[in-house]
Amino acid sequence: MNKPLMAKATAVWLVDNTTLSFRQIADFCGMHELEVQGIADGDVAAGVRGFDPIANNQLDPIEIERGQADPAYRLKLKFNAAAVGEEKRRGPRYTPLSKRQDRPAAILWLVKFHPELSDGQIGKLVGTTKPTIQSIRERTHWNIANIQPVDPVALGLCRQSELDAAVQQAVKKRAAEGVVMTDDERRKLVSTEQSLAMSPEPRMPSAIAGLENFTLAPTEEEEKPQADFADADSFFNLPASEDEDDEDDNR
């Protein structure tokens, strides 16, 4: 069900001018019932002027009469050609004020770990502009020294499914261009589920790289042949001690 234009202002008008239940107003305006109750209590939408849905050709008066007579009745929005496509309006992603300061950290993370993403894709994921992305790519941002890369999913700037979709789009674009990717790049360009399902490759730590063919030279003790004690006679045939040699000489 589509929402009316200026849904919160419409809810304010319905609360002030009708006896509809909070649930009916919430269903019609696409809001939560507690939010409508907050409007009635004056805690929400303080200072918002009511928007008359009847005068603006969004609701028939008969609908309000039916809703007031039956609390279970759901109001029906009148068809308005001007509202078609309002939900699918294109534009930059809206980022709350509390999270806008986290966008540089998310951009740096995407630039560092997903360099295959274009500036347009990054802008749609975190809701930023191309000049900002370019300044972080070129490390000319005014606060670049204090920015630490943070996953935008962890910051709540985008969903994991949206990031995976952008990565998959980058995979198709690179495949169409015939770009050969390394194993590390290929692992980054798959979705999270596929990446977790892949078997980890054994890797040599960078600190000891180049020592995989290194072998130690045998010591002198290792070069000496070891005695063979395969049978009992050889085991008990021990060499004579110095005391026994002295006794044989005295005789």
From TrEMBL:
Q: What Pfam families does the record tag this protein with?
A: TrcR
Identify the InterPro entries for this entry: TrcR
Renumbered residue ranges of the record's region Disordered = 191-251
Indicate, by first and last residue, each region the UniProt record lists as having compositional bias (Acidic residues). Answer: 241-251
Tell me the protein's name: DUF1013 domain-containing protein
The species this protein was found in: Halodurantibacterium flavum
